[in-house]
Each structure stands twice: as structure tokens, then as C-alpha cells.
What does this fold into?
Amino acid sequence: MASGPVTERPGAPGAHAEAAPSIVTVVRAHVASLRPQQWVKNILVAAAPLASGQLLSSPNLSRTAITFVVFCLASSATYLVNDVSDVATDRLHPMKRYRPVAAGTVLPATALVGSVVLAGVALVLSWTLISPQLAGVVALYLAINAAYSWGLKNQAVFDLAAVSAGFLLRAIAGGVATSVPLSQWFLLVAAFGSLFMVAGKRFADLHGGTPQDPRAPARVSYSATYLRFVWGMAGAATIVFYALWSVGVGHHHQVWAQISVAPFVFALMRYAMDVDRGVTGAPEEVVLRDRGLQLLGLLWLITFVVAAGAS
It folds into this structure.
């Protein structure tokens, strides 16, 4: 005898009703929206005190640590804003559609409120625990990134400048927080080194990146030739200015500064090779994948620290 249609009970195995996300899932989504894996970029705040040989002094070490935390908060605030502004295009991207805001696990309104809170805390901490000058650097960082999220990322060249400025301001913040004078060579190396990484990232995305859905609107369309030009120019300038720093730093042990040029140049060459192969991802992701680049970076760091300590 034929039986009638079977109706599944709500909550029974096989039912199609979606279960509400658990608290753990919600918390994980909100933490992921802060992009903690990208906080490693904020280590750049240690560049100025390290270059001056003053990083390990007690007040400078604590001030650098606080500045690192401040930029973790500030950078996460900018990531939230950027995810809200990009939510429509991210949903058409094979990888970015899994970002919490694009996936719908974090509401845009919640992300914006979180961004305001994080930015506010970053400004208060930098003002009260360090100095108004550091708060000014953080405010400039937040303003540039807000402008990037809501318009500059659609403007050729300006988008490269805005992202590069984010790296440069991290390096400047470390000097401001520890009252370490920033030399012209330090600023030039930081500026062109930042542009080198950003242009390289854009080239890698174009050369070997994951294609976006054709329905997604185009932002800035750079040619591979143009990005190679910017990338090569920035890399050459970074090397030249670093070499000029090496002949002007130190006295009795100036030779260590000059020795550090070799691993520095080879590290840039290795990074450039990875980019040329289309190895996509943020600069810190490229470094974590390449053992040879890590070795060169370690050799450079050792010689750099010795040179800075002897200066």
C-alpha cells in the first residue's frame, strides 16, 4: 500500500531549516573581520628605534609595544570600513566572498560601529599613553585609509600612494613614539620600499591572481608594463637610498652597515622573483612562504642590528 508524503519535523535529522549560528561561530566571525593575520605589518613601528639602536631600552621597548597595539586597533578599524565599502564586489569574488561582512556573518552596521570604537580606542591610547603627536600620526593613518575605502581606491596612482602611505606612517609612528629622529634616508627607504611592495602586490594579482566574477565592476585597470615600471623604479630607489644610508651610518663599525647592503639587495631580488611568478597575497604572506627569503631577511636583520648598534 502506498504511503502518503512524509513531512519532516522541524529539528529532525534531514530537515532543511538552518540552525542559528552558535556564539562561538559569531565570535570567530567578528574576530576574523578584524584580520588579525595582517597585524604582523604593524611590526614596522619598530623600524625607527631599531635603526637607531635604541629599541631595547626600557622606555622605548614599552612605547614601541604600545604603538604596535595602537596600530593593530587602527588597522582593524580600516579593514572593517573597507569590507563594508567593498561588500558588493567582494560577494562576486571567488575568495573575498568568504570575508565575514561579504558572507553575511557580520552585519555592515555592526562592522561600522566596531570600526568607530576601535579607531576611538586607538586615538585615546596613543594620546594618553604616548603623546598627542602619535595620536596625530594615527589620525592621519585613519583619514588616508578612510579616503582610500570611499574613493581613492578607484583612482589610478592615488590608490598606490594611499596604500604605501599606510606602511610609511607605521614606520614614522615608531620614531614619533620613541622620540627617535627620523633621518632623510630612513624616510626615503621606507617610502619607496612601501611602494615597491604595493606595486609588486598589484602586479602579482594581475599576473597570477584569482579572477573576479565578470559582473564585478572594474576599479583601476593597470597594465603589467606599467606596474613593472613602478615596481622596478621603487625597488631601484629603495636600494640606492639604503646604500646611501649605509655609507653615512656608524663610525668604527661602519663596515657592518655596508655589509648589510648585500642581504638587503638579495632579499629584494628574491621577493621580486616571487612577485614575478605571480605569488599573490600580502607581503607578509609571501615572506612566510619563502624559506630562502626568510634566510636572507635574517642575515640582513643581523647585520643591520649590528650596524645600528655601532652607530
